[in-house]
Write a structure and sequence with these properties.
By secondary structure, the protein is of the alpha+beta class. The chain folds into four domains: about 35 residues; about 70 residues, Alpha-Beta Complex (Type Iii Antifreeze Protein Isoform Hplc 12); about 160 residues, no CATH class; about 70 residues, no CATH class. The protein is built from nine helices and twelve strands. Strands 5, 6, 7, 8, 9 and 12 form a six-stranded antiparallel β-sheet that branches. A two-stranded antiparallel ribbon has the order 1-3. A hairpin with a 6-residue loop joins strand 6 and strand 7. Helix 3 packs across helix 5. The longest helix has 23 residues. The protein is elongated and about 190 Å long.
């Protein structure tokens, strides 16, 4: 090849490479990349993680957050302001206004207005009182009793009669038609399972006398709550704000109920073992016979010899003076019958307790010494 031809080819190659480099530098070979719009993050909504029931307090454990489903997009866009905020705390301690299925997006209309539950006294109408009891679930309808239901209150007690009586068990109705106003010591309506070994707390609404009776009976046996229908007289009481009438002329137990209530309210009636004796229909135990006053004796002595004995007439003893003297010595008084003692059937009663004594030998010895001292004082007239 001639030199001129080789030179021309070289120049052409250089020009071609230069053109290619210039085109590349100018971006003629760059392909424009398609523009990709940024993907919007998924919408989070608050949903129920389990079935929620009307009137039950919702907690954070009952709700969760999840992405909005495609089929829910249209409703969400139209009603965005009606959805609950995507926060677990948004539904905490809110009361459901209707039944809600699991995995349902929660709306504001699903809940009652945010507010504290009404105060305790707002649940108790005038003229009534309340008693709080803790009952194992086997003695309160399996623990299924709810606020607003009515129950009859029964007492099962182990009873001993007098000093030496053998204990026996009996069950009697303390109060009828008591209304449950609080359960588990909380004003919030909660959905909770019942533990097998823990008692359940109930607050019962009763008249003042029956309230005092239930409070006293808690120390003398086992209480049982039996489900009961709404009492007929309760339906009448709801229609008026007048003072309820608790007396029932057809019931021997409730015939004088209004009089008992009035005395309790005035602070004139002490509720105790005598009330339980009446309810259990126990026969009256008379008080022990008071000690017979001793004759004063005059011994006639002439020198070193006893010449005679004169018995003076018996002096009448004032029972109040005798009772006060014995009480000051720690001895039992004779103006009150020993009556009955009431224990829980599950409670251990020692032999001395069954006989009306104690488990303290020193105390029993002191009582016997006091009795002997009182008898000596009666004999000597001191």
């Amino acid at each position: 090849m001639k030199a001129s031809s080789l030179f021309a080819v070289t120049i052409a190659a250089l020009l071609g490479l230069g053109a290619v480099a210039g085109a590349k530098y100018a971006g003629l070979f760059d392909r424009p990349e398609p523009k990709v719009e940024p993907k919007a993050p998924p919408v989070k909504v608050l949903v129920s993680s389990m079935a929620l029931f009307e009137g039950i307090t919702v907690t954070q454990a009952m709700v969760r957050l999840r992405d909005l489903y495609p089929e829910e997009q249209a409703h969400y866009q139209k009603n965005k302001s009606s959805y609950m905020p995507p926060l677990l705390a948004a539904a905490h301690m809110r009361i459901a206004a209707r039944n809600i299925e699991a995995d349902t997006p929660l709306l504001k209309e699903h809940f009652e207005d945010t507010a504290m539950p009404g105060g305790f006294t707002e649940r108790v109408p005038p003229y009534y009182r309340t008693a709080n009891v803790s009952i194992p679930k086997e003695r309160c309808g399996g623990g299924l009793l709810r606020v607003g239901e009515y129950v009859d209150v029964y007492l099962t007690s182990q009873i001993t009669a007098g000093k030496d009586g053998e204990p026996f068990n009996q069950t009697a109705c303390l109060a009828r038609g008591a209304k449950i106003v609080v359960k588990r010591n909380t004003l919030w309506p909660v959905l909770q399972s019942n533990s097998g070994d823990q008692p359940i707390s109930f607050t019962l609404m009763l008249n003042p006398y029956r309230t005092a009776l239930v409070e006293f009976a808690k120390t003398g046996g086992n209480l049982t709550l039996m489900p009961a229908p709404i009492p007929p007289e309760e339906m009448v009481k709801r229609e008026t704000k007048a003072r309820p009438i608790w007396s029932d002329p057809n019931s021997g137990e409730y015939r004088a109920e209004d009089e008992r209530v009035d005395r309790v309210v005035r602070g004139e009636l002490v509720v105790g073992a005598r009330d339980l004796e009446r309810i259990f229909q126990l026969p009256y135990i008379p008080p022990p016979t008071p000690p017979t006053p001793l004759n004063d004796t005059v011994v006639h002595i002439n020198g070193l010899r006893t010449t005679g004995v004169t018995l003076l007439p018996q002096k009448p003893v004032d029972p109040k003076v005798m009772a006060a003297a014995m009480a000051s010595l720690g001895a039992p008084t004779y103006d009150k019958p020993l009556g009955y003692k009431f224990y829980s059937p599950d409670e251990y009663i020692s032999t001395s307790a069954k006989k009306g004594g104690s488990d303290c030998p020193e105390c029993d010895a002191a009582r016997e010494a006091a009795k002997a001292k009182l008898a000596q004082r009666a004999r000597t007239g001191g």
